[in-house]
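Researcher: Here's my situation. A collaborator sent me these components and asked whether they could plausibly form a single complex. I don't have experimental data yet, so a predicted model of the whole assembly would be a useful starting point for our discussion.
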Amino acid sequence: MLRDVATFLERLLGFDPATFDYSWVTAVVVIGAASLLAFVFIALFAGPVTWWERRIAGRIQCRIGPNRVGPQGVLQWLADGIKCFLKEDLVPAAADQGLFRFAPYLVFGGYMATFAVLPFGANLVAADLDVGLLYLLAITGLVVIGILMAGWASNSKWALFGGIRSAAQLVSYEIPSAFSLMSVVLAAGTMSMQGIIGQQGAWPWEWFVFKNPFLFAAFFLSLTASVAEGNRTPFDLPEGESELVAGYHVEYSGMRFLWFMFAEWGNLWVIATIATVCFLGGWQVPGVTPAEIAASTGLAFWGWQALSFAVFVAKASVLVAFVIQLRWTLPRLRVDQLMITCWKYLVPGALLNLAGVLVLLAVVPDQGVADWAIRGATLFLGLALASVFVWKARAGYLADRDLYRRMEGKELWYPPYRLP
Amino acid sequence: MTFTEILQRLQAAFPDGGVEAVEDALLDPAVRVRADLVHAACLFLRDEPDLWMDTLRVITAIDRPPDAIDVVYHLLSMRHHHTLVLKARLPRETPAVATVSDVWASADWFEREQFDLVGVDFTGHPDLRRLMMPVDWVGHPLRKDYVRPDVYHGIPTSRDRVVPVTQALPPQHQAKAGPETDLMLLNLGPHHPATHGVLNFLLETDGEIVRRAKPDVGYLHRGIEKIAEMNAYAGTMPYTDRVDYLGGMFTNQAWAMACERLLGIEVPRRAEFCRVIACELNRIASHFVGTGSMAMDLGAFTPFIHWLREREKINDIMERICGARLTYTYMRIGGVARDIDAATLEMISAWMDHFEPICSEFDRLITGNEIFVQRLANVATLSAEDAISYSLVGPNLRASGVKWDLRRDEPYSVYPELEFDVPVGLGWRGHVGDCYDRLIVRLFEIRECIRILRQAIAMIPDGEVRAKVPRVLKPAANEAYGRVEAPRGEAGFYAVSDGTDKPYRVRIRTGCFTAMPVIDHLSPGLLVADIVALIGSLDVIAPEVDR
């Protein structure tokens, strides 16, 4: 069938079948299939995660959330999507028609293109570029152009405000984000996503986040910066609904509006993935090395792929849940405070981190006694912090349980770990 | 100082007979000042150390055909706790009086409104434009001989004639070529999530920095003052709910108090307690919306929902008390509509037991949040002098450090018997009078309301809840000013009767109306996001501004 397609294309283009190199046809088909898979994944991720976010928000706000479409409302995102499809596609009369129509695709394309290098499992990656991380930082720049374009083309002052704010914010937060990821590149010695994962191990003490205190700090810096780059609360100034109404997409409706939403929730996955790949050991499965997975064949190979995929999704989902919880807990920063946070704290912090990682890499030999001592100390630090948080969460839960007893005179109806 | 002493001081200062007591035996004794002396008398009253009339409560113009228009100034001295009613009679053909907007900053908007609705020319006013009605409206609606135009730009003003929508075109909006400027004009509202109703602010911005925010009101002007002139005294009660939809009990009570003073009705003791209980519950509910929506304006959605959950329970109690959840119409002239039964009192006590620990939940969630504090502390700081000059009232005034609460300082109902504190702004996280103080004062007030409620429930006596009131109310010609401490400050009703069964003139003074010019005053130099925080912190409600 492939040959038929090739023959057809050749006849169309007038090449000689005898001398033609067939590899480009294969490449086109593979790229097409990979893009389609990535798109399907975004759709299948961004859709349900909107439902998930709204359920978490409901739990936080003492209400139920969407629970009508399908069991427990899991199909709510489909209903929303269909609704947006059926809405009229309004373009303001005074808008710049071409740019206005084009902007959503640029924003969506910017996020979509990151999926080219994002790994999902041991061998599940569209293109393992040598400069994967650099590509990732570069391609997200498209999003800024798209948002600015949407803000300008809408010919609305509120949208313009949103667009300008977004450009300032994204450009500023690229810097701490890039610097903290650069320290990972130094530690790994490669920019390839799979290479970075390969340099880590499956167990927490083999992850980069616990490699040394500087990388530990870099993890939080990078996470903060990428939350800001994704326009999520507390950094959602470009769309801040109570100030700018909806910011850069205030004039959009229907399917074009949906593209922005797609990009926003798809970006949750990108945020979580970058942190997982660079700091949390990616898809590594305990007890097996990447080389052994690559060497296996047949059913075992696909089994390992599925297992590594599951590990990866589990790690990323925890981070996604964390980012969602941030949104429903924190108020929004002001625009000057946003810039202060970036330029006074995050940028110098990231630079110091970079220097610290460099010094440690130069002084401490890898896998030596000192290296393991530092790893152990950092892991201990991380565990101590985590246990403080768990302890505080437990205290909050117990307080809530007592409150609920007093309020309603009965036991709390959900255990602490379950969503309503 | 008593009225007679103030009168003597005034007559000594203006010896040529321009100042005299109004001879009718009025409930609030008044001074009549010759029109050309008004400005000088006001300055004198404000600046004399032992008079110190620092607050202008309200300016009212009353049309008295065929030949006169009265302008009435209600003055108050917060320092000396005395009040004065100042009147000037103007010729109806050319009603002109000197402006007092340079004496009290709040006079600016009061005079604009009276110019708009009654047509008094306040000479020397810096910006005498219509406030409520459209700029090209013809006539002054509160004149007694006013005839409503049938159409306005092709839109019928009556409900009787239904015109297809295609014919009723709105007036063409014309872009005016202003002077060349580098500033961007930005319309915040009338439909904007942060304006809490239909309000408009014209922002002049330089990037994110606001150079000026000009409030533009009147989108919700329903002419309740005019409606009240057409209704019997008791019939106006349901309209007072609509003045302030979050604090209906207070406007109810202020109107009832004004009418009871006119008619000389004594309210039964149990009814007074019923009023206090209903009002304090209502105050809590109103502060829930005020503080919760303030958090929402700053991007934290969750606290608002938590407060609304509690407000639902208050609404349930209100439903038992008066049958309504929002527009209560609970008060009657001479009492309340119905008794609060023992089961409902039990319900209120149970709710308070449940609610008190939740106060701290809100604090954990948002009040102590560092981002939230940084957004509010030291933003839009209003000094005590400015707050008084702008006639701010209620929590907004107290946040600036002025301990003034009508329940304590001009006691009414049974409040003297109850024990409660008046929280003031102390610069909790920044300077006195910043947005954070305005928030925290409201949160403290919620706790004080609980205290008052517990005492009132313990003290409520048995007895009637309504005085014997004649079926048709015809108070003699007189005037009365009834005022209560509402969630957004003083809610005052100035009722003038003429011996018939309908009021001759009603003037409504609300806290939000005087809070609006403050936004104009504080806005230069703020960021756009700060404007949103400022509007939220003043707890502005559009129908209360426009009435």
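Model: Some features of this prediction you could bring to your collaborator: Chain B is about 40% helix and 15% strand. The first strand of chain B starts at residue 19 and ends at 21.
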